[in-house]
Amino acid sequence: MAWLWVALGVVLLYWGGELLLRHSVALARRLGISPLVVGLTIVAFGTSAPELAATLAAAFRGSPQVAYGNVVGSNIANLSLVLGLAALVRPLATRARFIKREMPFLFAVGLSLFLVVADGLVSRLEGGLLLLGLLLYLVYLLRNGGEPAAVEEEFAAEYGSVSVGPVLSLLGLGLGIVLLSAGATSLIEGATTLARAWGVPERVIGLTVVALGTSLPELASSLVAARKGESDILLGNLIGSNVFNSLGILGLTALLRPIRADVPAVKLDLAVMLGLILLAWPMLYTGLRLGRREGAVLLAVYLAYVAYLFKP
Predict the structure, then answer these.
(1) CA atoms lying within 13 Å on the CB side of residue 211
(2) What is the C-alpha to C-alpha distance for residues 122 and 276, in angstroms, rounded to an integer?
(3) Cα 300–302–303 angle (5° rounding)?
(4) DSSP bridge pairs for 35
(5) CA 223 from centroid of its chain's CA atoms
(6) How far apart are CA 173 and CA 248, in angstroms?
(7) pTM of structure
(8) What is the pLDDT of residues 206-255, one digit of tens each?
(9) What is the CATH number of the domain that holds 213?
(10) Domain count for the chain
């Protein structure tokens, strides 16, 4: 029965996230926001909506380890599973300047999380500081959004048109939020039941089952972008999603309800996340292709990490 709750939750989260994302983009374009800014902010953050819903649900249902595990596990999945599979579909090469700015920022965010969880508690004050970091990141991104013409054209082709009216967009947003709420509740209920049945820590379930379920929007959009050769959109989505997970989701959740963490285990998870950033950073920074061989390495790292989590 627990697996049915998990499956139902994943389906509802996926469709809720899709509705929220699609209609958020439509509203943003009607407000005159440029396709590049839409892609680097609204789309990147919109694909993290399932993570936000599931993390808040876990925190308020008394499962803080699931909440923490979902955030860090989704980041790890984005940098290894999603990026690896996308590179296997089609080698990635970026022309965008934002990659060179955001990869070091993403690494700095990971390092800051070490300091935040060092005492085993993400407090309301720390949550507020994380949210402030996200705000500063957005301001910087909006003020430094100039990109080569080819990159601007890639984003314009993907996010330049408006396909639905404002009333329908608002209705779609509302339905998306309802589906996200219901899906998060179902997923967390099934995941915590599985943790008790398997005798594994809730943190592990959050890092794997919940994180995989909530990362489906990133996975789906990344595979589509890879197939279409939209490497800049793909990478902007993944990097922006990881920043939002770390600063926005963890920050908002801690602000509403402080999160306690198992410090030794948490540091291991964060070390894996930072290691993956360091693994991908040189390739993306220099503009070299992230080919199928590199994608296979990232995928192997993810599988090895999951195997380690479930080892007896």
Answers:
(1) 31
(2) 23
(3) 65
(4) none
(5) 15
(6) 19
(7) 0.89
(8) 888 888 888 888 888 888 888 888 888 888 888 888 999 999 999 999 99
(9) 1.20.1420.30
(10) 1
